[in-house]
Fold this protein.
Amino acid sequence: MSSCRLVTRTLAQQFAEQLAEATAPFQFALSTRAGTDCAAMLLRSMLDQDPDAVVVSIDGIGAYDHVSRAAIFHKLLANPHLRHLVPFVRMWYGQQSTYLWQDDAGQVRQVLQGEGVEQGDALAPALFALGIHDALDIASRQLQPDEFLIAFLDDVYVKTTRGRARAAFDTVTGCLRNHAHIDTNLGKCRMYGRREAAPPPDVPELGPDVWRSDKPAQERGLKILGTPVGSEEFIDTHLRARLQDQQLLLDRLVRMEDPQCAWLVLMFCASPRANHLLRTLPPEEAAGFAEGHDRQIWAALLILLGSPQLNGRTEQQARMIATLPRRHGGLGIQDATRRSPGAYWATWADGLHMLHLRRPREAAQLTALLEGQAMGRSGCVAAAEDAGRLLQGEGFRRPSWAALRAGARPARNTDPDDQGELGEWAHGWQFHACSQRNNLFRERVLLPALTPAGQAMLRSGSGPQAGAWLQAMPTCEGTRMKASIFQACLRRRLRLPLPLLHGTCGQISGHGCRNRIDVLGDHLAACPRTGLLGRRANPLERAWTRVTREGGARVAHKQLLRDTNVPLADPADQRQLDLVAYGVTPNGIALCCDATMVSPLTRQGQPIPRAAAHDGAALTRAEQRKRRTYPELLHSPFGRLVILACEVGGRWNADALRTVSDLAKHKSRGAPALLRPSARAAWHYRWWSLLSVAAQSALAATLLAEGDLALGGPTGDEEVPLGEVLEHAHLAPPASRLPLRA
Ligand SMILES: [Zn+2]
């Protein structure tokens, strides 16, 4: 069964372009991620620009089960590219499908079905779209020049006028019935136009709920692919219901026993949920919803943090940090309010070209309005230009609307510090527009509000992989974080007080400088007198050993420099390397690794020189120190010094980043050619999860004086199957951009 799924998914991908072409210009659902937003944007703008325009929404009864198979095969055979799919599709849909059903008496009965496609089949959406294509095409030809229809799979929308609403409805539903065997569900059909007016005389007989433009304010509107369009009150009602829905998820989430799991659900599911509405609603309309969403998410996060008692200022700063991307020192929780203008502008930026390919006339009209070449820009169209101006005013370089209509795409981002993260879609305009806003917020609002120590720690928590532990899946011992540890790590990142057991340094262990300890853990993270620095180094070295071993190296743990091939002046040299990795460099040179974790703050809690204003100041200092310790490894043909350094906030140095990248590349060479890029990404994800979790857990465990340091599980001697690595890497889902469908 699963191999069948795999084949259908592969075919759906391989033929995506031809399938999209064969169902153009009506289908907005195939092979495009922005289709829903684009469809909603088009219909909404038609309503906003013309008070006489009416949108008719048509819902087929069991459309997937009834769509004509003959129509599907007819379309496949008529297309020279798609006919190659026929033998495969015939295996599933060439004869009657038999479904088994057990009735109340326990009797198994057969249900024969000779039409329709199956819900779980990856090809079904495309086959369905093919099956209704001719019906839509024939209907479309019978519409007036200023009318059109579009479809998102089985959701069909007709743009018409009040006077023509019934006739257009009859035309389209008639064609769906005659040419695709799909009947219309009158109970779900809706018609709406901006002008408040009684229904045209021939509409009421379709049912009392069909015409929406004369309903009380709260019901005056319709939902277009999950986006409410209508009166202020209608939109408000819908948005409030959405917030209530979301609260149900959050209420259950905070009751989960394991904060790491609860956090992952919060980050991957609850937080991105607002995105679809932010993309389709003008910022002004979305404002109340966005604020409500942000408030709900923060309240849930506070519970995951153990409900700390906070003063207003501390809480406000923590909340600001939380909403930064992980690569900028935050938790990667989306701030819907900050995101709203970027997301909304991006829908237009992403959608205009797509629209141009399907409805060139409307795309040209909208572009002229957006560019100010045509008069009368209003409603959602005006809001798109307003959002664009706002972004531009903040320094975002946006293309002209005409360029976007012609297909302008964002430049590929080459800054390694500014790449998208797991769960972010980096190819659309939204990533760029929102990144710009986040960067500006960090530089102009957050950093100036922080103390110098806070600034240094925000920088310390930034950079590639600095927040990898926040997206690590707890699938093995090395990536699972104990509740108290995980909570402490989150609090450290947000600069919130830790539940520390002691007031002065050394009070518990006996080793210490006897100075007062601060509740943020800064003193304990930096004081060399406690012995904690040595203790926390051990798990980190073990994690590096494991990773280099899994990467294919032969690794000697804690090797004396004199036991390597590097020639030394003194045969009794006492210097010891944390690990030496053999066999992973092209020229055979050994990697002499020194793993270290350093703090950008002194034990008095003050930033070390440069650390408040520059990234990685503590790393630079550590690297200089190590180079002085191992001068003979700087240019030796026998061994290369690799300084695997990280800061307490999570930032890694260039050597560490390069080492993991090289290992992933090396390791993936053993995978089948087709799998190599995924294998490389999966190993990369796995190893950064292991390293980042080891570093943060070890630090937190020493701060909390927890006896047993998590040592990160096995040592890497056992071969980890690629399948397992791939599977776990894919557990982290990309954020969904589809609306929730009831
Ligand atoms: Zn101390």
About this structure: The first strand starts at residue 53 and ends at 59. The pocket of zinc ion is lined by residues 505, 512-513, 515, 523, 527, 529-530, 603 (CB under 6 Å). Residues 732-742 have pLDDT under 50 and may be disordered. Residues 305 and 487 are 6 Å apart (CA to CA).
